[in-house]
Amino acid sequence: MIVDDDPDLLVILRALFEKEHFEVLTVDTGYDCLKELQRGFSGVILMDLMMPFMDGYTTIHEIVKQGYAKLVKIVIITASSKKDQDKYNELEPYIYDYIQKPFNIDWLLTNVKLACID
Q1: pTM listed for this prediction
Q2: Which residue ranges of the chain lie beneath pLDDT 50?
Q3: Is 10 helix (H, G, I), strand (E, B) or coil?
Q4: Count of structural domains within the chain
Q5: What is the CATH number of the domain that holds 89?
């Protein structure tokens, strides 16, 4: 699942991962991410941090609080050059990786493939 409020990035990443034979869900809010988890999603989540209404940290906190953390591997993808250390440190055990935008596409693909088999 790709969670990002940038519609262009959602389209690009969907095409990239579908080309690699991944089943891809895209949502543009943390609320929609939680809805998909309630519907039974499990797998890798690429999570943007800076989103309106519910940011990525709050969404991850809710994933943990609602008991979905065991079903997913969360890879943060963000344009932010600085981590909110307090929020990050609290959630670090639930975060598989932290990747800054712009990212290397090959690295992102490799990382997601590793998360799938890990």
Answers
A1: 0.92
A2: none
A3: helix
A4: 1
A5: 3.40.50.2300
> Which domain, by its residues, includes 67?
2-117
Residue in the block written with tokens 């991410």: 33
CB atoms under 10 Å from CB of 54, counted, come to 17
Residues 32, 90: Cα–Cα separation, whole Å: 23
Q: 91 near 56, Cβ under 8 Å?
A: no
Give the sheet arrangement for strand 72-78, strand by strand. Answer: 26-27, 2-3, 43-47, 72-78, 95-100
30-42, pLDDT tens digit by residue?
999 999 999 999 9
CB 63 within 8 A of CB 34: yes
Q: Specify the DSSP class assigned to residue 80.
A: -
